[in-house]
Amino acid sequence: MNIPSWINVAERAAKGFLKSQQRDSVIYAKYIKEWAPAVEWRCPTGIAQISIVYLKLHILNRRNEWLEAADDNIEYLLTIQGRGNENVKGAILGSDPIDGPYMLNSYLSWATKFFLEALILGEELK
Questions:
Q1: Which of 61, 92, 107, 110 lies at 20 to 30 Å from 5 by C-alpha?
Q2: Which residues are 42's β-sheet partners?
Q3: Whether pLDDT at 1 is above 60
């Protein structure tokens, strides 16, 4: 679906994340006014989902900043995949650190699904 008004709204929201990511080199789990981080932990599920949005925006407008930011996020997700637990190789945790408030001490099937979707889409664009 290529509805210009929806794309504009999505891009406006994504630009907030992008500017914050460029400033802080990370996407935090929660923001307040002016895209200031409200917490120090990350939500890997959200980072994977935002990466998918970045990649789809890159497909639509071919701006490299979307692709570069998605690549940075995917690299981060690769570093935390199954971190510290041999029994969950490949899994993505709910919070980083794992004892963060979102899905405390858990590895999430949907986080891994969104990570894989971003990873595959990113590879298709290379």
A1: 110
A2: 96
A3: no
